[in-house]
């Protein structure tokens, strides 16, 4: 300023150097000040550890320190390299010492174990904590706000940092969260953040995750760390915004990008399920309906035109002298027919002449055959009933059972309440009110807990020994933890009334109680310490989590507080070959059922089921139906006795009613059934309930029909001159026995061919039925013929309807049935297998209404895969470096489109968890360096060392011998606070090790199906699981198959349409062949019989669709049986037509109907009709639907086709008369009084 006048006189050019000098000086001053500020800013916030935390016992505060960073020692360098790889702070001067690094390592063990499977995620996470703990630039982004003096007298000059603000870049926080949000926790089938965020992964975000990790309520943070998120400076602090890696990026240390399973971005586009095929329609109408309508109308037009043409009758008498005109086939047929006639005539005559010998011999044979009943074994095991030992599902079940043990037995309760109250919970200090349904009110939970504890205390008796739940239950952590697995919401409170009542409150507020604990646990069921003031664990007493979708029902979405049902499941060990242990389980289940049947609580409605329930109820159902069957037999017996006779007066009632013949007929039926059962029991073939319930009705239908044919033919016949009784009966038998033999042998062969089926129920029924029908025929032509006496004549039946109307009606029925045959439902609703009054029905109903998860499914990798090689590991695992089409990856991809694949969750993977467990950074894998024995993470011992070194090779996956060295340790390690990856609870049965732990045999990877309610859901789930397993097998070049407990029951439905078509086609083919031969090689007659039977079968499908009868093993048995019974309705009429010598087809059809129609109508239709009606009164739903409805349909359709349609069809297109048979017939009766009858 002193020079200002001079300066003021300077020119501009003269003043410029001064201006530049002033600018330069100012710049230097600015640089100096900035440098000085940076030196002051680069100081620590803390250093070292001081006093113990008063809020989190066992944790320490950091010491307040605002000096410069301090160099780290050699031991610290190793820890820093382990925890913060890639960090280089020059001279390693940091704001932390070795003690802080050790604390950091201990605190981050669980995040390390769950998140290190995605390197980018874990790198970013460690970046967050390494900067917080050790950064030499702490003061730039951290501000210690509260301090306390250190209580230790030796540290009098130090203070504790008890609260700190951590300024974090929002960009960094978002990037860290995005890299970690998809990481899976394989053992739990959930995302890792569900276990590390304090809430469900879907509710977790970047800010609340970091807030949870820095919250003292998580049990790991010793003092509050308050995160402040911003990308711009705040209050003079520059937020920490270090470089981050996306999950699709590899790290500089060579770690690869995260796998698709742990990083959605790495997966590419989400798989899209193929579109459902559009329905087949014509002009918007079902195509089959349109086609069959057109076909039906076309047929009627053609048929009307055809029937208007005059038919030219032929005179059969012209063939009397034209035997030479008979064809070779006709001659052969006549000779075959004559041979059978002579054979049966001789046999009939012998039986009448030697009745005692025949009857006694028959009794001896029947007694010998029936004696096998002492070895009779009835199978009620559902697996044996519905699954063939050679079927794929059965073989896979046996493989699973032999390698991993049988699937556990399940005892389950579904508990609801009649109350509709809603309890409103108001969170403290703020938040929206949360409604809790009535079943989740505390008093309700206490009552349910009382019930659960009562069940736990049940004591059963087996062979004089007490059996409790602890003796048989599944205890995954035994022998270290013998608590039973109980999948119940009460296990969130460790099954304790005191824990349920635990609350933090004062006279003004309830800060935390069971409401807050419940809401926390349904979000983090594996948590050992909730974030509320309660700090209670969520994990069950058995050492495992209880997932809310298993323990709750009736909620919407994931609003578990809206649950209207509690589901309590007691898994019980199952035993493959140990009958004693299995007997104990059965005894306890029996006591469990008895207790719950007698339990009463007006506030609780309980539906329950035990593993043995279905089998018990099937047994009870069978016993209850005995009375129904007995009444049905009595009605049929009374009818037979009355129908066989010709009652003239009450005085002659017992004589005329032919009660002796009725009794004989019934005894013959029962004897044939008993003989069949006995013979197969001798051979060790077990019976099924279907055999016991169906075969007597079948044999009675066939047997009574044959009895009526014999008796009524005898009643119509007149004894010829000089003909004795035995000759008359022999002649009659010679006339009718070929027809009986035709039907019986056709049925026997058809049934035996049906035994080729893979379905045990169908195969067993076919074998027993085939033999019983044939034995019945043999006894009828022997014993019954011997007992036959004089009978009266029976009136003839002659049916007359308009031919055109009949044909139109029957072809219309056929067209309709063909149109709906593909619409018949497949499957068997399990509710139908129970009696009407069964307690299991209510359980099935509630299960369908409330349950929110499907059954578990295991993808089994068969023995032979080399897990010790990288190739074998990559083909299976789902982590870094694994194949994109590995097993775990393909199942994960399938879970993304669960509505199509029915795979609900990512699979649990023992291999991926093992890789995380064995990492050198983890505290899980340790061993005693002096003995080599495993050292659990919770053990504090200086001789425990890490399994693998902290080197580049040590961080890689174990291969070769090293893989097998540590695997048994992993499978025996119980999870704990310091190591949540122990494999004992989750995987102890998932890996089948070779003897002496020399290698890995078969293994499985478990997930769950989606909710399955209807049969079609179960069938679709099995189908999709097999498709997925086949794809995995192809990509691995090693067999993988899916297994779930229901597969053995539903596999039959995958091929039942094919099996039905095959069984019925084979049966029809057998009937065609036998009919062709036994009718004397009359091919056209056999065709007509086969067409009529085929029409009956097709019409049965139409009835099944109309009457809601699904296609399954039971209905298939009935269809096979209807094929056999249809032979009875058709073959006798056709044979009578073929041997008739009337003038034309119409007269021959009338004669066939008159001679055989009455026997068929009386013998089958009326006999069965009365007995079948009684079945409608059965308590069994299976009897009502599959027996009453189907049996009634079989009889009505068979009678209608055999007695109405078939004669009409024969009158139009029946075979021409066999010239050789006409000539032989007239020759045989030439010169006798029967010649006049024939001429007449």
Automatic annotation (TrEMBL):
Domain SSD: 625-790
Gene Ontology annotations for the cellular component aspect, listed alphabetically: endomembrane system; plasma membrane
GO molecular function, one term: cholesterol binding
Protein encoded by which gene: NPC1
Membrane-spanning ranges: 280-307, 342-368, 626-647, 659-683, 689-711, 765-789, 801-821, 1061-1079, 1086-1107, 1113-1131, 1152-1178, 1190-1213
Residues annotated as signal peptide: none
UniProt membrane topology term: Multi-pass membrane protein
Family under the similarity heading: Belongs to the patched family.
GO BP terms, alphabetized: cholesterol homeostasis; cholesterol metabolic process; cholesterol transport; intestinal cholesterol absorption
Reaction(s) catalysed by this chain's protein: cholesterol(in) = cholesterol(out)
Name of this chain's protein: Niemann-Pick disease, type C1
